[in-house]
Amino acid sequence: MRKESSGQQWAETVYDPQGEVALYLRAMTSGKVFDVKTDPSTRLTGKETMEEILHIATGLEKDSIIFYLGIKDMVPENLGRDQIDRIIKEEMSHITTLNEELAALSK
Fold first, then answer.
1. Most exposed: 27, 64, 100, 106, by fewest CB within 10 Å?
2. Model confidence over 2-37: pLDDT tens digits?
3. Distance separating alpha carbons of residues 70 and 74, to the nearest angstrom
4. Rounded to the nearest 10 degrees, what angle do helices 50-72 and 20-29 cross at?
5. d(C-alpha 14, C-alpha 10), whole Å
6. Residue extents of the structural domains in the chain
7. How confident is the model over 64-93, as pLDDT tens digits?
8. Is the distance from CB of 92 to CB of 69 less than 8 angstroms?
9. How many C-beta atoms surround the C-beta of residue 100 within 10 A?
10. Cα–Cα dist 73/2, whole Å
11. pLDDT of the residue at 2
12. 37 to 34, 55, 96: CA distances (angstroms)
């Protein structure tokens, strides 16, 4: 998407005089929200119940949705905003699947 657009196209579609969008994205990717430096498998001890694992997975899916919602407004309509919407819907479907698995455990 970046290759297909010029900086001018982006500047014309995003009103952000304080640079808050860049700050948001930096916070999301710097490890304050998404800890990209830690191996995700280290979060698990092997003693978690299936319910706990499903709750962890749901939380990660929610974090992903928040991230994509944050960048959605930065992407101009003509440069793929609909692709971001598709990603968000896919992440939402993952939450639905995880919730169905949680419900099945309760039966």
1. 106
2. 454 444 444 555 566 677 767 777 776 676 666 667
3. 8
4. 160
5. 6
6. 7-106
7. 898 888 888 777 777 788 889 999 999 999
8. no
9. 11
10. 15
11. 47
12. 9, 22, 28
Structural tokens at position 75: 């992407």
Query: What tokens were used for 5?
Result: 């657009």
Amino acid at 48: E
Compute the distance between CA of residue 21 and CA of residue 25 in angstroms, rounded to an integer: 6
